[in-house]
Amino acid sequence: MLSHLWSKASPDQGKLIVRELFQELIHELGRGETVAMATIVRRKGSVPREVGAKMLVHRGGKISGTVGGGCGEAEVWRSALNVIDTRRPSTVQVELTEEIAMESQGVCGGIFDVFVQPWHNTQLPGQPGMQDYAYAINEALQGEQAIVMVTVVAAGGAWRSQIGQQMLVHENDRVFGRIELPEAPSALTSQIVQAAQRAILAGKPHIEKIAGPANTWAEVFVEPFLPPPVLLIAGAGHTRMMCRVCVLSLTLPRHTSA
Question: pTM of the full predicted structure?
Answer without folding.
Answer: 0.82
